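Submission sheet (multi-component)
Chains listed below:
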Amino acid sequence: MRKNKNIISVKNLTKEFKNLKAVDNISFNVERGEIFAFLGPNGAGKSTTIKMLTTILEPTKGEIQLNDIDALENKDLARKTFGIVFQDTSLDDDLTAFENMRFHAVLYKVPKKIQNERTKELLEFVELWERRKDYVKNFSGGMKRRLEIARGLLHHPKILFLDEPTLGLDPQTRKHTWDYIKNINKKENMTVFFTTHYMEEAGKIAQRIAIIDHGKIVASGTNKELQKKTKTKSLEEAFLFLTGNEIREEKIGAKERMRERHFRRNH
Amino acid sequence: METIYILWLRQVIKYFRSKSRIIGSLAQPLLFLVAFGFGFGSIYEKAGEGNYIQFLAPGIILMSVLTTAMFSGIDIIWDRQFGFLKETLVAPVSRLQIILGKTLGGATVALIQGIIVLLLTLIVGFKPQSFASLFPAFIFTFLVAVLFSSLGTAIASVLEDMQGFQLIMNFLIMPIIFLSGAFFPLSNLPKTIDFISKINPLTYGVDGLRGALIGVSSFAPSMDLLILLVVTSTLLGIASYLFSKIQA
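Outcome: structure written.
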């Protein structure tokens, strides 16, 4: 049987928290080998969607297929298809950088030989090889971020989810990281699904883009298509056209985010 | 197998790295041993029950094992707070493997703690009946460790923050210890207390360990063993089910 050309297929996905719809009946597909950007203002529902796609949050309604596997019915199997770099830290502070890498490699069953090669390659790549024996708790925010990315690239999954991977990185590291990811994408046909606030980054790297706001997908297509549709000259302008100029609360917890959206809806 | 091993290893590494935790956790059993042992010792002997330290030592060992094992479950709440939990949640391995690794890790740590406390009791004057008795003692201690490590994990899986955990620990740990026969014999008790002690799994751990170490027990060792095995495997199942329901 020929495989479905869509590696991610989402239908009518909805997540309701007490009295707010964080994700409101969204549907989209991502093709095999595609680099797909998922954009939206803060609190639009990006992270909630990624959490549902990666099996750690139960949707209220809807269907998710990852590599033709029902990700809601068959969580264990679905987890084998993807890797993820989370928006906030998910490292063990009490372990060293190297131990964090090793822990991940074992969980993802990376063969020993590749494990050692790749750990060295990646830690050198993010310039942490010299610090590999240091506890993560002694690392700065930027170093943790770099380690997190290195760890996420240890195994090469069919789908790589990246939730604002380059947040807080300097332009050099950002560029290197994307070059590295694009390289794996090309060599191994790895699908990349990412969110970012850097519009330029999204425009340059993603083959297709979806914009989500207030839990709904408001537009999707290539960078050019989005600009054409909104009659704007850059992705940033298109984004602002679609989501408005109103400033959203910066970086807050899920609960605050809920409260904020609830407030907005009722006033 | 390697998955279980790496999760186990993580618990053990973290234990040995927190030297202050090891030392701190020895204060309580030592205090109980000295205060109870010497405080109640003479009354106990006058009542014609024999040497109290002999009776008390197995109870103190398991008290320490239980506390350490239960608190190893707290790790899940820390992991949740510091984000590391997500790393394990999205890992492409079965939830049972994760729980087995974590629980066995917690149990190993608790077992080491138990051995240290055993050494402390020897200093205070405790005399196990024979060297060979240490083998069955080891088995009972390990089962108690796994049992309460899974219980801690199960509870931590459904709690979101530290406060709730502390509450349950205090309302659970203390009654479990006090109503297990760890400190006093479970004979001639009022009916309710007697009933509670009978459904308390630690009772069978204490009884089994006491049987092994000093040759005195209320139930048959095989019965203690059977009950502990059944409760432990049930709790392991419950813990991995609850863990699989965690939402991030």
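Remark: Chain B touches chain A through 28 residues (CB under 8 Å).
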